[in-house]
Amino acid sequence: MVGYDPNSENRNNSKVEVAVAGSASGFVTRALISPLDVIKIRFQLQVEHLSSRDPHAKYHGILHAARQILKEEGLTAFWKGHIPAQILSMGYGAVQFVTFERLTELVHRTKPYGISDFSVHFVCGGLSACAATLSLQPVDVLRTRFAAQGEPKIYRNLRHGMKMMYKTEGLLAFYKGLPPTIIAIFPYAGFQFSFYKMLKQAYEWAMPGDRKKNANIKNLLCGSGAGVISKTLTYPLDLFKKRLQVGGFEEARATFGQVRKYESFLDCARKILQEEGAQGFFKGLTPSLLKAAMSTGLIFFLYEMFCNLFNCKKTSDNQKTGQSWRMGNFTFLKIFSSPLDAVM
Question: For residues 281 and 205, is the Cβ–Cβ distance under 8 A?
């Protein structure tokens, strides 16, 4: 169901249905994985080592971070920035899947080879993610800042955050971290879509009799695998993006330890390497992989499920329409054949 396939029995979803399915899958996934996302962002922004051996380190690991956040900020802290995050997820899902479906259809109609080709899904997935990113980058910056801030809060709510950013940093503040975001999102999303397709094909090859019986489990497992592979290959770029997005927001991070200012993407990479070592490029990788496995698996699983639901509803409506048409014709023929029967 992901990507245009002329051989599919269910390849008849409209643009609106694709957008709704993408938004709904993003909404549900975001609500479930938000705690991991908050912990991941905190790890990415911590300059000190993620270890109890560093006396200045705010967080030492996932469980320690969860306990600290719960103790100091309360349970709701795991959903900090949830409103902009939901706007981001729903809008991103809609734009990405609609664009991906149309791009794969366009490629299929103009190219002689099949749409299942790894490179086609990679390029179309990357381009669709870039389109979604450009559309929603301001919301992503706000989401990151809400998740990053401690207590007392600098931004009270979404409206206040937007007003403060514009007033103190200008319009370009909403696009901080855009270059590394675009650089990171193209291969990440490309790998997601291409590995998802490849893993599904491998699954069906390994279990040929299981194609339709456990389709939901297959979608979930293949999506999770694609998420883990994609995130591992592109993780440092995501870390650079987060560091740049909180530039000018240092006051809100005073209680979390050291803060750094970066002039550019390359300056960020250079300073991290000098001060934190090569392992600094992978801070927060563990919660990020857990999040990637859950989020990508759920996104593809839910997207295909919602598309199937739309198709089932269409099929049911068509069957009812067909039954009504047949019953109407039967009644029509019965009425007009009755006089003839009487004559005969």
Answer: no
> pTM of this prediction?
0.72
Show the tokens assigned to 235: 């993780």
Q: How far is CA 198 from the centre of its chain?
A: 19
From the centroid of its chain, how far is CA 284?
18
**Cα distances (angstroms) measured from residue 201 to each of 116, 207, 211, 249:** 9, 10, 10, 45
Structure-token pair, residue 284: 């927060």
User: Could you give the CA distance from residue 195 to residue 213 in angstroms, rounded to a whole number?
Assistant: 22
- Identify the CA nearest to 298 among candidates 208, 215, 219, 185: 219
- What is the C-alpha separation between 257 and 276, in angstroms, rounded? 14
Write the pLDDT tens digit of every residue in 45-92. 777 777 778 777 888 888 888 898 898 888 988 887 778 788 888 999
CA distance 318 to 312: 10
